[in-house]
Amino acid sequence: MSKLSLPPLMPGGFLFGSGPEAVADPLALYTRAQRTLGDVVRLRGIPGINWYLVTHPAGVEHVLKTRGKNYRKPDRFNAPVRMLAGNGILAAEGDTWLQNRRLMQPAFHRQRLAGLVAQMAQAAELAAERWDRLAAEGAVVEVGEEMLRLTLRIVGTTLFSHDLSGEANVLGTAIRTAFQHVSMRMTMPFAPPAWLPTRENRRFAAARDVVHRTVDDMIAERRRSGQERPDLLQMLLDARDAETGARMDDRQVRHEALTLMIAGHETAAASLSWTWHLLSGNPGAAAKLREELDAVLGGRTPGVEDLPRLPYTRAVFDETLRLYPPAWGQPRESVEEDEIGGYRIPARNIVMVSQWVTHRRPDLWDRPDAFVPERFVGAGPGTFPPFAYYPFGGGARQCIGSSFALMEAQVVLATLAQRFELESVPGHEVVPDATFTLRPRNGVRMRIRRRTPSPAAVPA
Ligand code: HEM
Fold first, then answer.
1. pLDDT confidence of residue 460
2. Containing domain of residue 106, as a range?
3. pTM over 0.85
4. What atom of ligand 1 comes closest to residue 325's alpha carbon?
């Protein structure tokens, strides 16, 4: 294999190569790399340090699935997550990961999750009540903040049966502080080491202690009272390995619960913020969405049985995840030397796959930059080549919460879009910022307007 050549090199600065642009604007860098040099590209940081970008679906499948065991999550990604969520499945490797993933998997099957839809809808109803007040005032809101508040409420109630979204909520506030620190460490490789008593490190340590203590108390209380609740915490406490009967100890339950919060709340909030942004710029799609909602729900709060009857609502979200995938790229580290697309990939190098680039490749997608939910209506396995569309990753490490996220998005959009229209504020430019998740850099500022469903569409 060593006879194969390395992939073509992306030109960059003499001293730091493409390093500075990879930090400042990775989306532009990786898009240009694919457009100019093709499916597998080599990028250089400081002399001697290379990394590789793989964006062709076959190459992505190779890295994430077929040869997935040869590509592990790099420590630079795992270490910050572990600071808060220990060896939870997002950052665990090897046997620990496999054992706990197997324990948790049944809780995330669509049928089990169906029981959580009512909690999702209730949280969306509370958001609607808040928006009613804001609409009456003609308020302009930061939609990113609104969606964070809502998804934190959803994750809090579905996980712990506990509302974390209020400003005064101690756990909610500590979780937000701790998350910010974790995502800062993921995107800033040269952040001061955790043992240095900087202000930021001390703030994080204090927040992490509050989070751990409060979650531990909730677990202990649940065990003590013996009272069962219909939430994910209960599912984690009850989980048994089908073969061995093994279960998680309380510390692991704490870490898995926090893992679900880290992985599930900001990604969901970011994707919903992008949906509102796209709908405001595409009135045709917004009108079609409302037509569907009026016809199927007629102002009602959606229940789990309504979800299959809202295919356009689902397509709007699928298309959002194509254009603005919250997980915009994942780094892996090669264990052994390998070949991808006819090129040599050395051992112990970073290999990056990027949803942002693959999802917008002109050779895979018709009108790649346009918002066309119709392409997802009626789509199923086989509609697109495997790994042309992979917002939830793929292979063994694919997102465990994908069904949760899709249900949540349908419920939130169905509840809010049938009652409100969100209008962009002129002069506020919305720019994607690729940090831990793909978020709008300066938020999405929009005006909330109440709407009345078209009477013709309301079912009798
Ligand atoms: C739109 C929302 C979401 C998106 C786009 C998303 C995307 C992803 C992606 C791409 C991965 C794979 C990462 C990798 O391979 O390195 C992942 C992993 C994961 N996600 Fe999600 N996710 C979302 C929502 C959620 C939710 C709601 C939950 C939990 C309730 C969740 C829990 C997880 C966990 C635990 C993992 C790690 C799985 C493992 O390594 O075994 N995610 N997610």
1. 41
2. 19-457
3. yes
4. 5
Domain count, the chain: 1
Sign of CA dihedral 319, 357, 144, 169: positive
- 7 in a structural domain: no
β strands within 28-89, DSSP E: 40-44, 50-54, 71-72
438: phi then psi, degrees, rounded to nearest 5: -90, 110
Per DSSP, 64 falls in state I
Q: Please tell me the distance between residue 450's alpha carbon and the centre of ligand 1 in angstroms.
A: 33
Distance from the alpha carbon of residue 407 to the mean position of ligand 1, in angstroms:
14
- Tens digits of residue pLDDT in 238-284: 998 888 888 999 999 999 999 998 888 889 999 999 999 999 999 99
Residue 2 belongs to some domain of the structure:
no
Q: Rounded to whole angstroms, what are the CA distances from 74 to 16, 55, 143, 312, 334?
A: 21, 19, 33, 38, 9
Distance separating alpha carbons of residues 448 and 460, to the nearest angstrom: 28
The 8-class DSSP code of residue 454 comes to -
- CATH label of the domain that carries residue 386: 1.10.630.10
* In-domain check, residue 128: yes
- The 10s digit of each residue's pLDDT in 175-195 is 888 988 988 888 776 788 888
The three-state secondary structure class of 248 is coil
pLDDT value of residue 274 = 97
In angstroms, what is the span from residue 355 Cα to ligand 1's centroid?
13
Nearest-CA residue for ligand 1 atom 39 is: 397
Confidence of residue 4 (pLDDT cuts 50, 70, 90): very high
The 10 Å Cβ neighbour count of residue 246 is 13
> How remote is the CA of residue 326 from the centroid of ligand 1, in Å?
10
What one-character-per-residue DSSP string does 415-444 give?
Answer: HHHTTEEEEEPTT----EEESSSEEETT--
Residue entry with tokens 């994750």: 155
b/e 253-285 (16+ beta carbons within 10 angstroms → b)? bbbbbbbbbbbbbbbbbbbbbbbbbbbbebeeb
User: Mean pLDDT, to the nearest integer, of 270-299?
Assistant: 97
Determine, yes or no, domain membership for 227.
Answer: yes
Interacting residues of 439 by C-beta distance below 8 A, sequence separation 6+: 144, 266, 270, 273, 326, 432, 433
